[in-house]
């Protein structure tokens, strides 16, 4: 069989936004993805659902596979005829052993391409506000492995030239050897007051930066308990961080670990907003949204749209599933030419506008009760109302409309089902205390989140977990189930929830 092509792809330093467009293309077409510990997990979402993903990470001396075994695995998978992506943290050819893997592929007659990635030394320094070169400070730069033992007799590092001849030195994988690195630099003539920075998890929401000089940085690292992975920057340019630090200063949620319980297909907006503010999002979807098995009521309503005066949407899901079914039946928005519309919340209204329809009523507050209030000035007696929504939904809105004299048809547009395969992952997170907050965006997320926790350990596992709720109805459900609600959004939307979290941490 003709071997498949192998792409040695640099995953970048950790921020998924720094992944290259070429890398994204390779991920989409890969049949096999062989990835490292430092390759950002969100990048795997770029893979085809049919792709085989194999973890071969190396972490603190714990190697899933030896390098020889990884080389053989790449060769074996390519020989099946599939396209293989070898996804490597940073850049494949900068301390990534990509050169060795390329040599093995060449020896075995397997075609390959190299897709460079943003290397950690450059990205972490930039995110820490440290330009590695500066016209007024240095014109020389060196990347050095810190993994080599500087004390060994056969070191291939020219410490004399490095210490005296290079303005900025970036050490990779050097935290463990920091005492030996500083000793060698001082021994070969580097100024003891030369600034030093250690940047851990550079470019990610877990980034930590510690600065000092060659004489005190070892003690500062010990006191801070800073561990790998980190890069070490040595040189006068480190001083520029005082004025140029940007990433860590403008993110109120930096380093905060937040559980996101929304359905995976809906979580992206919340995750994006929280991540932009520095939060580390842990996705534990507790629900999934699907179309109902029985679509007869929805179909009957769509077949008689001329009968309705009003179409009311209470969620984005309602909009999405209604129009999906409308299109499946061979119709389009022209079928709604005589129907007026109302929405709960600006996001729902925006989704409706995506289909070319501007809603006629948008309440100022985003609750079903507010929609009812918004109709108080509208003659509703004898009006026919279609309400496509979740299978199990509160009766507040239809009851209020009926009291006004409207004829209301409630049809199931979608169903919300529990996700049950996250129980072990959630228990592990709660046991370790790895979450600062959990976000609840609906009553169903609260109920299903609770069902994932062993009942006999609920109090133990949630004792220190703080809760952020999107609104009072969700909060009431959380309280009834035993949670204490620490934050409630004033505006019952995703931006409102994010703003409430920012407000909480801006005072801490």
TrEMBL record:
Its EC number is 2.1.1.107. It comes from the Bacteria. CDD domains: HemD (cd06578), SUMT (cd11642). Keywords: Methyltransferase, Porphyrin biosynthesis, S-adenosyl-L-methionine, Transferase. Residues 5-217 form the Tetrapyrrole methylase domain. Coiled coil: none annotated. Pathway: Porphyrin-containing compound metabolism; siroheme biosynthesis; precorrin-2 from uroporphyrinogen III: step 1/1. InterPro entries: 4pyrrol_Mease, 4pyrrol_Methylase_sf, 4pyrrol_syn_uPrphyn_synt_sf, 4pyrrol_synth_uPrphyn_synth, 4pyrrole_Mease_sub1, 4pyrrole_Mease_sub2, CobA/CysG_C, Siro_Cobalamin_biosynth. GO terms for biological process: methylation. Residues 269-498 form the Tetrapyrrole biosynthesis uroporphyrinogen III synthase domain. Signal peptide: none annotated. One of its GO terms (molecular function) is uroporphyrin-III C-methyltransferase activity. Belongs to the precorrin methyltransferase family. This is uroporphyrinogen-III C-methyltransferase. It comes from Desulfobotulus pelophilus. The lineage of its organism: Bacteria, Pseudomonadati, Thermodesulfobacteriota, Desulfobacteria, Desulfobacterales.
């Amino acid at each position: 069989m003709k071997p498949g092509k192998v792409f040695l792809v640099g995953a970048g330093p950790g921020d998924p936004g720094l992944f290259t467009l070429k890398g994204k293309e390779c991920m989409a077409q890969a049949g096999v993805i062989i990835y490292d510990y430092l390759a950002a997990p969100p990048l795997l979402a770029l893979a085809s659902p049919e792709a085989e993903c194999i973890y071969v990470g190396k972490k603190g001396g714990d190697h899933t596979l030896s390098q020889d075994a990884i080389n053989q695995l790449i060769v074996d998978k390519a020989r099946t005829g599939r396209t293989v992506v070898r996804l490597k943290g940073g850049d494949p050819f900068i301390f990534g052993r990509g050169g060795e893997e390329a040599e093995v592929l060449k020896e075995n007659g397997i075609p390959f391409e190299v897709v460079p990635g943003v290397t950690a030394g450059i990205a972490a320094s930039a995110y820490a506000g440290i330009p590695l070169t500066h016209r007024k400070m240095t014109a020389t730069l060196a990347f050095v492995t810190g993994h080599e033992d500087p004390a060994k007799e056969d070191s291939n590092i020219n410490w004399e030239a490095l210490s005296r001849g290079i303005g900025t030195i970036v050490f990779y994988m050097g935290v463990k050897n920091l005492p030996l690195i500083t000793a060698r630099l001082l021994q070969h003539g580097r100024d003891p007051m030369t600034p030093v920075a250690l940047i851990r998890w550079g470019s990610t929401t877990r980034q930590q930066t510690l600065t000092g000089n060659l004489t005190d940085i070892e003690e500062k690292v010990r006191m801070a308990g800073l561990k790998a992975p980190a890069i070490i920057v040595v040189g006068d340019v480190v001083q520029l961080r005082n004025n140029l630090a940007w990433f860590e200063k403008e993110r109120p949620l930096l380093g905060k670990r937040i559980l996101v319980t929304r359905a995976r297909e809906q979580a992206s907006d919340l995750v994006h907003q929280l991540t932009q503010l520095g939060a580390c999002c842990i996705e534990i979807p507790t629900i999934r949204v699907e179309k109902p098995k029985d679509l007869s009521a929805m179909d009957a309503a769509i077949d008689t749209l001329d009968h309705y005066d009003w179409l009311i949407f209470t969620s984005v899901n309602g909009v999405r599933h209604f129009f999906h079914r409308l299109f499946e039946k061979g119709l389009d928005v022209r079928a709604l030419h005589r129907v007026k519309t109302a929405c709960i919340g600006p996001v729902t209204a925006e989704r409706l506008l995506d289909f070319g329809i501007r809603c006629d009523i948008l309440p100022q507050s985003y609750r079903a009760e507010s929609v009812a209030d918004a109709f108080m000035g509208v003659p509703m007696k004898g009006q026919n109302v279609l309400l496509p929504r979740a299978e199990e939904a509160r009766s507040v809105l239809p009851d209020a409309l009926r009291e006004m004299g409207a004829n209301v048809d409630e049809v199931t547009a979608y169903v919300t089902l529990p996700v049950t395969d996250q129980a072990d992952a959630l228990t592990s997170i709660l046991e370790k205390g790895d979450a600062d907050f959990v976000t609840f965006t609906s009553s169903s997320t609260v109920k299903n989140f609770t069902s994932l926790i062993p009942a006999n350990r609920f109090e133990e596992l949630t004792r220190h977990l703080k809760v952020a709720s999107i609104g009072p109805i969700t909060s009431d459900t959380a309280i009834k189930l035993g949670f204490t609600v620490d934050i409630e959004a004033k505006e019952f939307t995703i931006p409102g929830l994010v703003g409430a979290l920012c407000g909480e941490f801006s005072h801490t």
